[in-house]
Automatic annotation (TrEMBL), chains A, B:
InterPro entries to which the protein is assigned, alphabetical: DNA_Rcmb_RecR, Rcmb_RecR, Rcmb_RecR_Znf, TOPRIM_dom, TOPRIM_RecR
Annotated keywords: DNA damage, DNA recombination, DNA repair, Metal-binding, Zinc, Zinc-finger
GO molecular function, one term: zinc ion binding
SMART domains the UniProt entry points to: TOPRIM
NCBIfam families per record: recR
Chain ranges of the Toprim domain: 81-176
Organism of this sequence: Bernardetia litoralis (strain ATCC 23117 / DSM 6794 / NBRC 15988 / NCIMB 1366 / Fx l1 / Sio-4) (Flexibacter litoralis)
Name under which the protein is recorded: Recombination protein RecR
Length: 200, 200
């Protein structure tokens, strides 16, 4: 596309490098920013620079943090005998948002995938096993996605953690609350019957 | 949503103020930027600031421009007897991209809309009538959207321009090339028969 302004062209090129934003959306965003106050655009760019330059990863659980150790790991209100293992930061945020979990976390940074060449040493697994070695941690909850890679990683971690005498659990899989049985996919429904919960 | 990092929270809040980007997409973008090189993020923010601070609107046709008068208005290759009137800058870009038009443009900055309180004086109409008064312009093409407001604006402009002795035309409406008649909406199809083109 030809733009009558080189500045707009540059901005569109930069914005469209973001994931999920094509040239058309980028142009729409650029034109939107053109209509904003200079201060508003400056606020946006300042926060992006601060985000990139000042955000660090917690050295204990590897989540995003403003400080060396994140606010969750530092909190005295958290149950330190419980660690929930997730693949990526958004998974942690999703669980935090339920307000149903009071333990600590550990972000793996991915899952074991031989096809993509991701081996255990590429993930934050050693640091997890370091944390579970101190005797304080009693249980590790594996909250990985139900993919082949997620299951492989869960299997690998379970073996390693059991050797340390740690209890390993996984999040419950089943028919989502509010869903109708009729429209639930057959793998989920089948599993929710096979792994049913006894009421007694 | 609670974020373990205030910096991420700030960035998500800023990004989600952009049109069409919700909190979830904003978080995805923020986490993406976290994984980029500092230089790449700086390039992005620099281009946004430059966009906002240095981009101006062409004082002749009101499109986005790096200079007082845009590259289209300045070009000696353009047919100065022809002005295409569009609502917004993206419309101009879309027409430019067809490489089928060689005249000049005029960006109205919207359409007349009594409901939204937009009257002719809120739009770049006076400057259009100034441009068409000099005797050089022979024809004005109205490339407005086929909405009630677009049609109202076209009617208003046609009256004003005809008084100046300017020929007024509109872009052709009809079945898009490549579309099947069967699936064309009935208003378009009906109009394409009523306003058919004679082959002789």
């Amino acid at each position: 596309m030809n733009y009558p302004s080189k500045l707009v062209e540059d901005a569109v090129n930069e914005i469209s490098r973001l994931p999920g934003i094509g040239k058309k959306s980028a142009l729409r965003l650029a034109l939107h920013l053109l209509g904003q106050e200079v201060e508003d655009v400056t606020e946006l760019t300042k926060s992006l620079i601060a985000l990139r330059q000042k955000t660090v990863y917690c050295k204990k659980c590897h989540t995003i943090s403003d400080t060396d150790v994140c606010s969750i790991c530092k909190s005295p209100k958290r149950n330190e005998s419980l660690i929930c293992v997730v693949e990526e930061v958004p998974d942690l945020l999703a669980i935090e948002n339920t307000a149903q979990y009071n333990g600590l976390y550990h972000v793996l940074g991915g899952v074991i995938s031989p096809i993509e060449g991701i081996s255990p040493s590429d993930l934050n697994i050693d640091s997890l096993l370091d944390r579970t070695q101190n005797g304080e941690v009693k249980e590790v909850i594996l909250a990985l996605n139900a993919t082949m890679e997620g299951d492989t990683t869960a299997f690998y971690l379970t073996k390693k953690l059991r050797k340390q005498g740690i209890r390993v659990s996984g999040i419950a899989r089943g028919v989502p609350i509010g869903s109708e049985l009729e429209y639930t996919d057959e793998i989920t429904l089948g599993r929710s019957i096979a792994k049913r919960i006894m009421f007694d």
